[in-house]
Amino acid sequence: MRIRLQGAGKGLAKLGSRARQPTERLKSILPGRAPIGTGALSAPEVRARNSRLKSLVDELEESSRPETNPTGAGLNEVFDNVGAPKQDHPIPSKSWSRGEKLREGILVDNGIPLVSPILARDACKCAECIDPSDRQRNFSYADIPTDIGFSRVTPVENSGETIVSWRNDALPHSAGKSTILDKETISSLRKPFRNPHWYLYSLAQKLWDAESFTRDSNRFDFNEYMSSDDALAEALHLLWRDGLVFVDGVPESEASVSQIVTRIGPLMNTFYGPTWDVRSVPNAKNVAYTAKYLGFHMDLLYMREPPAFQFLHCIHNESVGGESRFADTFKAVDVLYSQDPGKVRDLMTYPVRYEYDNDGYFYSDLKPTILKRQELNVPNRPTHNASHPHVMSDVGRVYWSPPFVGNIHPKLEHHELARFVSASHAFSQILEQPQMVVEEKMDSGTCVIFDNLRVVHARNAFDLNSGRRWLRGAYLARQDFVSKASSMIDRMPANIRFYTLDGQEP
Predict the structure, then answer these.
(1) Helical (H) or strand (E) element with 339
(2) For the domain 202-491, what is the CATH code?
(3) What is the pTM of this model?
(4) In angstroms, what is the C-alpha Rg of the chain?
(5) Binned average pLDDT, 10 residues per bin, the chain of 506 residues
(6) In three state form, how does the secondary structure of 115-152 look?
(7) What are the structural domain ranges in the chain?
(8) In this structure, CATH architecture of domain 97-191
């Protein structure tokens, strides 16, 4: 389901709010202690904090004595021994899928568990299982008995929560301890991405070209970027959506680029160092350190995990020429699919080996031109304005850096190589079309930030004798960006289109 939020207000409070907020009842049971989603409670705790559950928990505690627990029972036998619980939630329709039943908070249907008890036990986040201070586990999933079972599953009327007592429970639970699972936790048990921070991937990406790139709104003042959390959140949102922003008014200092990066996360260190200079030098070890034309490329694709974001601060630029050029490879993939879907499939199939072998350093890695998002083990993302949204939702990264290719795949037959070269040529031609390119003459005091695994960059040749040209660069890893951006999602602008992870309205 598509949802469009209107207005210029800040925040995405609706987005995943149910998953982030514990119910009022759960707050009253364990104020300040129970992490969001689940809580395992002993009978004394429940009696002291919620008298409404007293009789239920007493009954469950009595039926969960250790001597009644089965031993040596296989998983099927444990499932067969589960009694049909009292249910106060809607009686499931026979046509409901297992996922639909779980979304309604139904853990057991007519005596049949909808998930393995191992999965439910692993989801417990009570104070015994998860340390309230460091949020680390006090148990290992490897120690959950394989014959663990549901002794009794009791939905609590009008609360959306379910009390689970166990057969053959795992430590550190004390004997007879019951677990309370809320509706959101039960609905997420079979989801691969449970944490609310994954909702960042529900924010749509926007494809752009020279005409549609919002050059004015994608610019920030350095002081505002450094001092305002709202400005930072907007910059993160635009980087996540478009992959390209500019920061102006940056002080003429070698330390400035580090300050811009560390506002988001730690510097990513490489063999170039935590930061590095882009200046023309004799006998350059990298084409970037010359004055000649540098075609579209991405940095460090010869590394197994290349930098996700690149920062380039123009400290001085008095030279003639040297304009920076940027293009959206995701837009190019969408255009190429309109022309010939088979060429997109070829670029997803045939890998390229990237290599760096110079000055005592050797790096090498094999990558396809288009990497599917499912291979990154992250959620698919909606695309704001794609001609082929279902195709683009599975495009995770694009790898394109012809200057640093070691070789194309040596074991392909001629007809396969011909298809791959043809697809690569078509992709390159799309990138080079003038209407695809955003060109910027970097002024002194401007820093560009771009997604290194989506946005290709290039540089026109410049006259070495016309004046100084000095840029200082740095990198940021993807996980560090995601960590910061997901923590600021409530500050991001609300007038964007997004999906929830399961396609449901939040």
Answers:
(1) helix 329-339
(2) 3.60.130.10
(3) 0.77
(4) 28
(5) 34 32 35 36 45 47 42 36 43 74 88 92 89 91 93 86 91 87 90 92 95 89 97 97 97 96 98 89 52 89 98 88 92 98 97 95 97 94 93 96 94 95 98 96 94 96 78 97 96 58 38
(6) CCHHHHHHCCCCCCCECCCCCCECCCHHHCCCCCEEEE
(7) 97-191, 202-491
(8) 2-Layer Sandwich (3.30)
